[in-house]
Design a protein that fits this description.
The complex is a heterodimer of chains A (292) and B (358). Chain A is mainly alpha-helical and 292 residues long. Chain A contains 14 helices and 2 strands. The chains are: A mainly alpha (292), B alpha/beta (358).
Chain lengths: 292, 358
């Protein structure tokens, strides 16, 4: 007789992969965070020391960097939502062929490596880059605009550029699933386009918006390469510090404590954003419909 | 007598296989008097094919290599493989530690004739000696100091890093030890043991308005300098030579009155070396002007510790021009730094970086 699989049994392989790839490494980090370091022998000394965790609360540098990361991620997610939402919704109205072209245009930048994109931006925004050269040629400026490269402006511009496709895709998929008859019904009942948007389209696309916000926030807040290579002195991030602590400084306990602190804070904020978004009635309706 | 059954044959074959695998996985030992095993970074002078062949032709000694990818790995290999290596290349900052752990044996300088012209400042480096005995022969050296765009006023002090004339035109090396060293020099202190860490922090923070970027790789430095993103920077002496020679960048390396933050690599013989005589002969070859001129001009090398070798370079050679022997008088060389101090240096640099980012 064929054995009957329960839902729980079907989840075993996924659970196994999650434990192996996620829970186990985090457990290792937790263990490392209470170890001590012998720099002479370049070894980790097993000990139950709270020194690294104390640093998280005592040293203001860590709080500053984690806070900076949260602000950077939230700012990028907000801008991506504001810019990406109209793009995604308008893409649903395109003919099939143009939808295909639109998705290619949207995804093509992701096929080039991150380093390639970063150096391309340096060519565009540098002191002798395309933007400054064009502005000089148009006699708008005499001296190159210094803020264009190696500044917070550069970092946020490139973070937005890199992560916008994820926001657009998430909202677009959500918008495509809306039953067009609901919008027609709203219009028939006398709703103005703006009312139809706020009462029908926006609530029904909040799950996509939530996914987009979660994804973009996580990617932007956790990016090390962009701030390091384009941010100049503003490029200090917790990730860069973790990289340094695991590498040159050989302070694995502190690196582990910082990694876990960052993870907890970012996860808390991301979950908070998504929870707020999913409190919309429309979002609940979508999930109820999906559960049936 | 054991019967030669199929099972016993399999046991014998398995034992032979295990023994073979175990033997082959050991670091290659110098089994004959005509072989030495060198432990070094890969592609760092000692393993140049032409050089090894020339040395073998001259002495009959074959040079075999094993490599490390970090200084911690190098120390671990020395500790855990006694008798495996005849020669090790190690930084002065790590040498004192190796000597303290009895991992190196004293050098018989009478058997290294070329050592007679090794610069006295480098030979006197306290990290290379203990109780009046030398445990490593200084091999090559370099330093971090100021690099400025050609045609600009040549600075004579690190104070220029805080000069308002360079607002937003300075690049710093993203390295804690180097920056704390420069901060120490700016505040008139010893780079290896600055007593007033607050003064070091203040000195580094004072240059905030001028700092445009922090670089961590030579390629990053070259690209940003070529794009005219900065004019003044902390940079490596060897890096400035490569930037000028290979990338044709208009860079001038300057050592101010406070001196550079220097490093020096030495050639040491492990205490359990099977062939110390062969190692001494190879050390002599490594600081020989014949080898050095070829290495420096054809491949590119740091500055030789042997002033005779450095002088043998063409008069207009960039390596020679950048690494003037008089700089050694003012250069402060990085030593082994104790755990607590290293941690303090890292904390200072992280604090300064966060301050720059505000």
């Amino acid at each position: 007789m064929a054995s009957v699989f329960h839902r729980a049994q079907l989840a075993v392989p996924v659970a196994f992969i999650l434990i192996l790839g996620c829970v186990l490494p985090l457990a290792v980090l937790l263990v490392f965070s209470v170890f001590e370091v012998d720099l002479d022998a370049f070894t980790l000394v097993p000990a139950f020391s709270g020194q690294s965790w104390a640093q998280m609360f005592v040293n203001p540098v860590f709080a500053f960097l984690i806070g900076k990361s949260v602000v950077s991620g939230a700012g990028t997610a907000l801008l991506a939502a504001l810019i990406g939402y109209p793009i995604a919704v308008s893409m649903t109205r395109l003919p099939v062929l143009w939808k295909g072209i639109g998705s290619i245009v949207l995804l093509t930048p992701l096929y080039t490596g991150e380093i390639v994109r970063i150096y391309a931006w340096r060519v565009v925004l540098g002191s002798e880059g395309l933007v400054n050269a064009a502005l000089k040629w148009l006699s708008v400026i005499d001296e190159p605009l210094k803020f264009l490269l190696f500044s917070p402006f550069t970092t946020h511009l490139v973070l937005l550029y890199n992560n916008l496709p994820f926001m657009v895709l998430a909202i677009w998929i959500s918008a495509e699933l809306i039953d067009k008859r609901l919008i027609e019904a709203a219009r028939d009942l006398g709703a103005r386009p703006i009312d139809a948007f706020f009462k029908v389209i926006l609530p029904l696309t909040t799950p996509g918006l939530a996914v987009g916000v979660f994804t973009v926030f996580a990617l932007a807040a956790g990016d090390m390469m962009t701030p390091s290579l384009l941010g100049g002195t503003s490029g200090a991030t917790p990730m860069a510090m973790i990289y340094n602590l695991f590498g040159t400084a050989f302070d694995w306990p502190l690196a582990s404590a910082l990694s876990l602190s960052l993870l907890v804070v970012l996860f808390a904020f991301a979950t908070g954003f998504v929870t707020i978004l999913l409190r919309f009635d429309g979002a609940r309706a979508v999930f109820r419909r999906g559960a049936r | 007598m054991t019967e030669l059954t199929r099972r016993n044959t399999m046991k014998l074959m398995s034992a032979a296989l295990v023994a073979g695998v175990s033997f082959s996985s050991l670091p290659r030992k110098a089994f004959s008097a005509g072989t030495i095993t060198v432990l070094n970074w890969q592609g760092y002078g000692t393993d140049e094919k032409w050089s090894v062949e020339a040395f073998a032709a001259k002495t009959g000694i074959t040079v075999v290599h094993d490599y490390y990818s970090s200084e911690s790995e190098m120390l671990t290999k020395l500790r855990t493989n006694p008798g495996a290596y005849d020669l090790v290349i190690l930084n002065a900052a790590r040498c004192a530690q190796a000597v303290a752990e009895d991992l190196l044996q004293p050098i018989d300088f009478s058997k290294v004739p070329n050592a007679s012209t090794v610069d006295e400042t480098l030979r006197a480096n306290p990290n290379f000696s203990k109780d009046g005995k030398g445990y490593a022969v200084p091999w090559v050296w370099g330093m971090t100091s100021l690099a400025i765009r050609e045609g600009m006023t040549v600075p004579d002090s690190y104070a220029v890093l805080a000069d308002p004339a360079y607002k937003g035109r300075v690049a710093m090396d993203d390295d804690a030890i180097i920056n704390v060293g420069v901060g120490a020099l700016m505040s008139g202190q010893d780079i290896n043991d600055p007593k007033d860490l607050a003064a070091v922090t203040a000195a580094l923070k004072s240059i905030k308005p001028n700092v445009k970027l922090l670089w961590s790789t030579e390629d990053q430095w070259n690209k940003s300098f070529a794009a005219k993103e900065f004019d003044l920077s902390l940079f490596w002496s060897g890096g400035s030579v490569r930037s000028k020679r290979v990338s044709k960048l208009p860079v001038q390396f300057v050592v101010p009155k406070e001196g550079g933050v220097g490093w020096v690599d030495g050639l040491g013989i492990p205490s359990s070396a099977p062939n110390p005589e062969g190692a001494l002969a190879f050390i002599n070859w490594m600081i020989d002007p014949t080898f050095y001129v070829e290495w420096a001009t054809k491949i590119g090398a740091p500055a030789s510790s042997n002033s005779a070798a450095l002088s043998a370079l063409p008069a207009d050679d960039l390596t020679r021009l950048v690494h003037k022997t008089e700089y050694l008088k003012t250069t402060s060389f990085v030593s082994g730094i104790p755990d607590d101090r290293r941690e303090a240096f890292n904390n200072i640099w992280q604090e300064v970086k966060a301050f720059y980012a505000e």
